[in-house]
Amino acid sequence: MHVLTENAALLSKAFGTTLLLSVAGGALAAVVGLLVGVARISPVPFLQRAGAIYVETVRNTPLTVAFFLIVFVLPQLGLTIPSYVAAAIVALGCYTAAFVSEAVRAGVNTVGRGQAEAARALGLSFLENMRFIIVPQAVRAVVPPLANVWIALVKNTSIAAGFGVLELTASGQRINFLDPAAVVPALLWIAVAYLVITLGSAFGFRRLEHRLAVAR
Fold first, then answer.
1. Distance set, CA 110 to CA 64, 100, 102, 142, 155 (Å)
2. Which of 21, 51, 67, 205 would bridge with 157, disulfide CB 3.0–4.6 Å?
3. Could you tell me which of 170, 162, 106 has the C-alpha nearest to residue 138?
4. 44 phi and psi, to 5 degrees?
5. CA 113 from chain center: how many Å?
6. Digits of tens for pLDDT over the chain (216 positions)?
7. What's the DSSP call for residue 162?
8. Which domains are delineated in the chain?
9. Distance CA 179, CA 175 (A)
C-alpha cells in the first residue's frame, strides 16, 4: 500500500488525465462521427465518397499513425496544437469518429426505408427528415455499438503515453523507472482504474439502453 500512498498525487493526476482524454476525445468523436455518418447517407455523391474515404482510411490505419501525424506532421505544416494532451484528444477523437460514423450509419439503416420516403413525400428536406424521423428512432439502435466504441476509446488512451502525456499507463512507466520493485502494485492499481472507467461506462450505457427501450 505504501507504493500507492507515496505515488498518490502522480496516480490521481494520471487518472484525471485519462478521464479527460476519454471524455473530450469521446465528445469530439461524437461530433465528427455524426457529421461523417450523415455525409455517408446523404444524397450528395461527393459527401458519400468523402465520408467513405475517411472511414476506410482510419479503419485500416493504426491509431499510432494518427498520433504521429497530429503530434509531429501537423506542426511541420504550420498547424501547431498547444499541448500534447490537446493533440492526444484530437488524435483519439478523429480516429474514433470513423467507428462512431459506422454505428450511426448502421443505426439509420435500421429505420424502415418507407418512413424516409413518406417524409420526402410530405415535403421534408433531408436534414428535416434526419432530425424529426430518422435520428429519434436510430438512437435506440446506436447505443449498444457506441458503448463498445467508447470502451475501446478509453483503452486507446494508453497510446498517449508514448507521446508525452502523463495518463495511467505513463504513470506506471514512471513508477517503474523510479522504483522497479513498486511497479507490480502500481500496475494492479492502474488496471483497477481502467476497470472503474470501463465497467462504470458499460453500466451507464446499459441503463441508457434500458430507458430508451422503455420509452419506445
1. 33, 16, 13, 10, 29
2. 21
3. 106
4. -95, 115
5. 29
6. 576 777 788 889 999 999 999 999 999 999 999 999 989 988 889 999 999 999 999 999 999 999 999 999 999 998 889 899 999 999 999 999 999 999 988 888 777 666 767 767 777 777 777 776 777 777 788 888 999 999 999 999 999 999 999 999 999 888 888 788 777 888 888 999 999 999 999 999 999 888 877 555
7. G
8. 1-212 (1.10.3720.10)
9. 6
Q: Please calculate the CA angle 80-39-114 and round it to the nearest 5 degrees.
A: 160
- Measured CA to CA, the distance from residue 40 to residue 36 in angstroms comes to 6
Nine-digit cell string for 194: 481502467
The set of cell numbers assigned to 160 is: 498517449
Length of the chain equals: 216
Tell me the CA distances in angstroms from 157 to 25, 34, 214, one per residue in order: 9, 21, 33
